[in-house]
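Example record for the data management plan.
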Amino acid sequence: MNEDPGRLAGLSLWREVIFNIFLIIYHIEAYLKLMGFGYYYFNDTWNILDFGILILSDLVKVLDFFELNIGIPPSLPTLARSLRVFRIVKYVKASKSIKVLIDTVYNLLPGLVKIMSLLILIIVIFSILGMN
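Corresponding structural encoding:
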């Protein structure tokens, strides 16, 4: 199944636009927090993590803009984007309903592993039968 290169380029462009919009929102958030808390902004470890992710994202954008390749691995932009997932963890502590949901999923994981391994075994058996 061949993918349309124009469609993939369009998706990549939209992803980049959305990334830039959220980056601007994060900059505004950090600026407002810095103005509100002042030096005490850096007393909270979550704010330090947010600020570090923001600086890393800015570094990636600057290097990408100037097309500088100074030995930075190509996975760095993906790492910078995936580190922002840790921001969600901060909100889980504040919301009891999300915490209950995550605890429920965590408690169900051992049972799901057993079910998934059984499904994989069935798929392997039928694959072997299908090849014969």
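Summary line stored alongside the record: The longest helix spans residues 96-131.
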